[in-house]
Amino acid sequence: MEHFISFDLKEFIATIGYIGIFGIVFAESGLLVGFFLPGDSLLFTAGVIAGSKTMQDTLGVELSYPVLAIGCFIAAVSGDSVGYWFGHKVGRGLFNRKDSMLFKKKYLHQAEAMYQKHGGKIIVIARFIPIVRTFAPIVAGIGVMHYRRFLAYNVIGGLLWAVGVVSAGYFLGEAADGYLMPIIIGIILVSVAPPAIHILRDYLKQRQAKQSAAPTLDTPAE
Question: Using one digit for the tens of pLDDT, what is the confidence trace for 43-59?
């Protein structure tokens, strides 16, 4: 099963080539439809293929590390910029929307304040968290984070993520071939851990708050 999944991802990369890889990185970096795409594992595996002549011969594909790294970097930065402008142009209308069960306007105001104070750090860190990296630039645009400031951190985050993950795969190259699937699983677990921990903490806090607010049965009557 492991061999099938690992081989399938490598075959997928060989099939889509540079254009497909760059397109996925672009979409996952800022388009709402791209939140489900396999950014981390895709970049790492593409880097491994670029660093392994044996793997390239087996797959019948040739990937250049410089082209891959530079192309993914440009796609990541461009995708985040598109996400920012989408949030800036369209997202502001959400402030005029009425609250509902699934939408609370207060969260937009909180996000706005959060990005004004810690926006840069969030843009960089979000690169390494699936789903969050797709929505982070959109919320930054909604929160009126100045574009020049956003772009500076966007470039830093894109460099660390796109070039960093591709480079990790490339320099492991042949050595990573036999351990590709465990490494990919590890990448996924590390990526998912931060939001999972955050959700768990929120759940525990809400549960504790409800328990504290609930009246006790042994409260003496007046």
Answer: 988 998 998 888 888 88
Split into its structural domains, the chain has a count of 1
Judge whether 201 lies within some domain: yes
CA 130 to each of CA 38, 77, 194, 195: distance values in angstroms, whole numbers, following the listed order? 8, 16, 10, 9
- Distance, in Å, from the CA atom of 106 to the CA atom of 113, rounded to the nearest integer, reads 11
Kindly give the residue spans of alpha helices, DSSP state H, lying in 38-179. Answer: 39-51, 53-59, 65-89, 105-126, 132-142, 147-158, 164-172, 174-177
| Encoded tokens for 100 | 């509902």
- 221 occurs within a structural domain: no
Residue type, 15: T
| Structural domain contains residue 118 | yes
Residues contacting 41, CB < 8 A, separation 6+: 9, 184, 187, 188
Please answer whether residues 50 and 68 qualify as being in contact, where contact means their C-beta atoms are separated by less than 8 angstroms.
yes
Q: What is the 3-state secondary structure (H, E, C) of 199-214?
A: HHHHHHHHHHHHHHHC
Q: What sign results for the dihedral spanned by CA atoms 127, 69, 50, 61?
A: positive
User: Could you give the CA distance from residue 191 to residue 188 in angstroms, rounded to a whole number?
Assistant: 5
How many other CB atoms sit within 10 Å of the CB of residue 94? 13
Summarize pLDDT for 76-119 with one digit per residue, the tens. Answer: 999 999 989 988 887 767 666 676 654 556 655 666 666 666 76
Query: Is 0.85 surpassed by the pTM of this model?
Result: no
Residue 217 lies in a domain: no
